[in-house]
């Protein structure tokens, strides 16, 4: 890969625009569009772009654990009550601290479901009378 190609790769990673990258790499305005498209199809250039992008993703990757820890810090340290409550709410949702109706029913055995159904029907009948 020559110097211009390296400039193109670096510029393309920064802008995502092949024409602008070709211009910044020293190609003429007349040919920048076609050269930019051609350079993107070059196997060596394409591989360099993919490697740079993969490295950027790796360097900026944040883990779920880091996010949960940050939310926990906000929940514990915020002076604003609504911010604190929202952070705790997010943590409860993420950790499964809330039980929804479906999960509750799924956790019951057949006898418990039948008992619950009978109690609900009795309450329904009592309110209709």
CATH superfamily of the largest domain: Terminase, small subunit, N-terminal DNA-binding domain, HTH motif
CATH domain class name of the largest domain: Mainly Alpha
CATH third-tier fold name of the largest domain:
Arc Repressor Mutant, subunit A
Order of helices and strands: HHHHHHHH
Number of domains: 3
Biggest sheet statistics: none
Which class of secondary structure composition applies to the elements?
Answer: mainly alpha
- Note the gap between the termini: 86 Å
Rounded Rg: 29 Å
The number of E-state strands comes to 0
Second CATH tier, the architecture of the largest domain: Orthogonal Bundle
Beta-strand content:
under 5%
Shape: elongated
Mean pLDDT: 89
How many DSSP H or I helices? Answer: 8
Oligomer: single chain
Helical residue percent band: over 70%
Describe this structure in words.
With 129 residues, this protein is an all-alpha fold. The protein has three domains: 3-60, Orthogonal Bundle (Arc Repressor Mutant, subunit A), CATH 1.10.10; 62-98, no CATH class; 99-129, no CATH class. It contains eight helices and no strands. The mean pLDDT is 89.
